[in-house]
TrEMBL record:
Species of provenance: Nocardioides ginsengisegetis
Lineage: Bacteria, Bacillati, Actinomycetota, Actinomycetes, Propionibacteriales
InterPro entries per record: Polyketide_cyclase/dehydratase, START-like_dom_sf
Name of this chain's protein: Polyketide cyclase / dehydrase and lipid transport
Superkingdom of this protein's organism: Bacteria
């Protein structure tokens, strides 16, 4: 299956360095605490230490009983960090075989543009549903950016 590319960007009134240092270790249970239609919130993350060591892995658990393993694969402070998601269980297992994710941070006027991107490898069934999933993901990403805005303003 060909990967499906999704991304969502937003500009914030802070520096590239401050944004990177805020987002990288931000608890996923805070960043993705709200359901967006069929995409469940993250309820627990099993990891050792603070997130931010290349090669580090953690298990993400969602409110629908699903889980996934995330591995930090790219770490280029303060411009980007990336990860891979695999070992997906629960309802999303039927849709998604794997994900490559990337957060990027770029100067934008007097602030920073943060972009969250996913390259999804869908299952055969998931490929049929990706147009709908992509629209839902955009709403989920928007909610995540709202949580970043709250943290920037705090």
């Amino acid at each position: 299956m060909s990967p499906v590319e999704l991304s969502h960007s937003r500009t914030f009134p802070t520096t590239v360095e401050a944004a990177f240092d805020l987002v990288l270790p931000m608890p996923l249970t805070q960043l993705f605490a709200r359901r967006y239609v069929a995409i469940p919130p993250i309820t627990r993350v099993d990891q050792d230490g603070t997130w931010g060591v290349l090669g580090q892995q953690r298990t993400i658990r969602t409110s629908d009983g699903g889980s996934m393993r995330e591995t930090l694969t790219t770490l280029e402070r303060p411009h980007r960090f990336g990860y891979e998601i695999d070992a997906i269980t629960g309802p999303n297992k039927a849709l998604v075989a794997g994900v490559r994710g990337m957060w990027t941070f770029a100067e934008a006027g007097t602030g920073v543009e943060i972009t969250w991107a996913w390259s999804i490898t869908p299952t055969r069934v998931g490929a049929l549903l990706m147009p709908v999933f992509g629209r839902l993901w955009q709403g989920y990403a928007r909610q995540g950016m709202e949580e970043i805005e709250k943290a920037v303003r705090a």
